[in-house]
Design a protein that fits this description.
Elements lengths: L5 H7 L9 E8 L3 E2 L11 E9 L2 E8 L2 H5 L8 E5 L2 E4 L16 E9 L7 E5 L20 H4 L7 E11 L3 E4 L7 E10 L7 E6 L4 H4 L7 E10 L11 E4 L5 E2 L13 H11 L3 H6 L2 E2 L16
Parallel strand pairs: 4-7, 9-16, 12-14
Antiparallel strand pairs: 1-3, 1-5, 2-3, 3-4, 5-8, 6-7, 9-11, 9-13, 10-11, 11-12, 13-14, 13-15
Length: about 300
C-alpha cells in the first residue's frame, strides 16, 4: 500500500484528515500510566508513550485507554508496526523525553501519533522481524551501555544502559508520590557487578510496568536496565554517593527474558557475557546478599556532620 513517512506527516498534517499508513520501529517504551479519577467515568483510563522511528526520524506515539491492555505487552522495543487510521495531535509539552541511542537521529517534537479505539478506530499490525526488509530503511535500536569503570566520570542526570551480575537485591520499599497523598512509588535497591571495577553499580529500581521482572530480580541473575539516569550527590564527596535510578522509559530484563532483545548484539553486552564465563559461580554466590533494610545514601558517621 502507499505509505507515508514521519517527515512527510510533520510537513502535511494540518492540511489532511486521513493519513496514509505508517511503517515504524519502536525505539523506546514508557511505563503504563493510569489517569483515572473518581469523578470521571472512564472504563480504561490508561495511556502509554512509545518513541517510534523510520528513515526520516523519530516521533512520539500514544496508546490510549482500552488499546493499552490489548497492545501494551505485545509492543516491545524493537517491534516493527504498520499503523493505519491513526490521528495526529500537537505534542503534549510536559512529557518526559528518553535519550536516543543515536544522537544523529532527527526528532519530530511538535506532533505525536494518537492511537484510539474510535475517532478513528486505529488498526495496528505487528510485522514479524523475519519479514522486515532492509529496503524499508527502518533504523536499528541503539543503546548507550556503560561499564562500572566508566560510571565515575559521568555527569549528574546522564542517561545510560547497564548490564551486570546481581550480587544484592533489597526488599521492595514504598515512597509517597506526594507528601500527603495516598499514592506510592514502589522501588527496590540492587547491586550488580560487571568485572570492570571493585565497586558495583548501585541501582534504584522503581517498579516499571513489568511486575513479572521486578518481583523476580534475585542474586546471580544477569540484569539489564535501559534508560537509567546517573544520580550523584554534588554537595558532599561526589564519588561516594553515585547511583543509577530508573526513568519513565526504563526497561529491566533478567535471565530468561534476554532472548531476542535488540541489546544482545551490543559489544559491551557481549564483553560482559565473556567475563561471566571466566567467573566461578560458587565464589560469586558466597558474596551475594538478599533482602533487609538498605539505607542509601548512607547517613554521616557522626551527628555533628548531620
Amino acid at each position: 500500500s502507499k505509505l507515508t513517512s514521519l517527515g512527510q506527516l510533520e510537513m502535511t498534517w494540518r492540511s489532511r484528515v486521513h493519513f496514509h499508513p505508517l511503517l515504524v520501529r519502536v525505539l523506546h517504551k514508557s511505563r503504563l500510566r493510569y489517569y483515572g479519577k473518581p469523578e470521571k467515568k472512564l472504563d480504561m483510563p490508561y495511556q502509554a508513550y512509545f518513541e517510534v522511528a523510520d528513515g526520516s526520524g523519530m516521533m512520539s506515539m500514544v496508546l490510549w485507554n482500552s488499546l493499552c491492555p490489548e497492545w501494551y505487552n505485545s509492543i516491545k522495543v524493537g517491534t516493527v508496526l504498520l499503523l493505519e487510521q491513526y490521528a495526529i495531535k500537537t505534542s503534549y509539552p510536559f512529557k518526559t523525553q528518553p535519550t536516543p541511542g543515536d544522537s544523529q537521529m532527527k526528532r519530530f517534537a511538535t506532533i505525536e501519533i494518537s492511537l484510539n479505539v474510535r475517532d478513528p478506530p486505529t488498526k495496528i499490525s505487528i510485522i514479524p522481524e523475519e519479514m522486515v526488509k532492509p529496503g524499508w530503511g527502518l533504523p536499528e535500536v541503539k543503546y548507550r551501555f556503560i561499564t562500572r569503570s566508566e560510571l565515575d566520570d559521568l555527569p549528574n542526570n546522564h542517561s545510560c544502559d547497564v548490564i551486570g551480575l546481581v550480587t544484592f537485591v533489597g526488599r521492595a520499599e514504598r515512597a509517597r508520590k506526594r507528601e500527603h497523598g495516598e499514592d506510592f512509588w514502589l522501588y527496590r535497591w540492587a547491586h550488580a557487578i560487571d568485572g570492570t571495577s571493585d565497586q558495583p553499580f548501585i541501582l534504584e529500581l522503581f517498579a516499571t510496568s513489568q511486575p513479572e521482572v521486578f518481583e523476580h530480580i534475585h542474586p546471580m541473575t544477569y540484569l539489564v536496565c535501559t534508560q537509567m539516569r546517573v544520580v550523584r550527590d554534588l554537595t558532599e564527596n561526589p564519588s561516594s554517593t553515585i547511583y543509577l535510578t530508573t526513568s519513565n522509559e526504563s526497561q529491566i530484563f533478567i535471565t530468561g527474558w534476554h532472548k531476542g532483545q535488540p541489546y544482545t548484539k551490543d559489544t559491551k553486552v557481549k564483553n560482559f557475557i565473556q567475563w561471566t564465563k571466566t567467573q566461578s559461580e560458587a565464589d560469586q554466590m558466597k558474596k551475594t546478599v538478599i533482602g533487609g533494610y538498605y539505607p542509601f545514601p548512607r547517613p554521616p558517621n557522626s551527628f555533628l556532620k548531620y
